[in-house]
Amino acid sequence: MKRAKALTVAIAVLTGVLAVGLAVALTSQAGPSLDAAPIPSGAEACSGEFWASHPESWEEYDSNVHMAASLFGPSGPHADDTLMDALRYTGGEDGDGARQTLIRAATVAALNASHESIKFPLRRYESPPTGGLIPSVRNLLAGNDSKAMLSAAAYLDSYSALDCPLD
Known about the structure:
This protein is mainly alpha-helical. The protein is 34% helix and 5% strand. The chain has helices at residues 48-53, 67-70, 83-87, 96-114, 133-142, 146-157; strands at residues 8-10, 23-25, 33-35. It has a three-stranded antiparallel β-sheet with strand order 1-2-3. Strand 2 (23-25) and strand 3 (33-35) form a beta hairpin.
């Protein structure tokens, strides 16, 4: 008998006095899904195109580091790709394309979250039990729910329209 398990992961938002949460609910029957909170006023982020063109601006990550060593777990079809490779993924609607779309969006979000000069509201890691961006993405990648991966990627991509203070 399949038992549904739910795990709620809240990502704390640190933009002055503003806070917002990102909840990821995981169930064994429905697969991962994402309920995104609105982007707070004053939030900043740089686009994937910016990060791909300016690896010298990266903080805490190296563009040549393999993803397995830095962000998305020890194995998987893209474990040997670098973070720079991930920024160049074109993605797709299902299967590996959805996985690439999520990895690309999450790489951009992690680069924004790691930069001290950017008021990016999502945190890469939070103290248990709230989790964080990277654990939430790892959970989604562990599943096979393309729709949930694309939903999470779309939410993360929505930050790309924000002002980039590094431009």
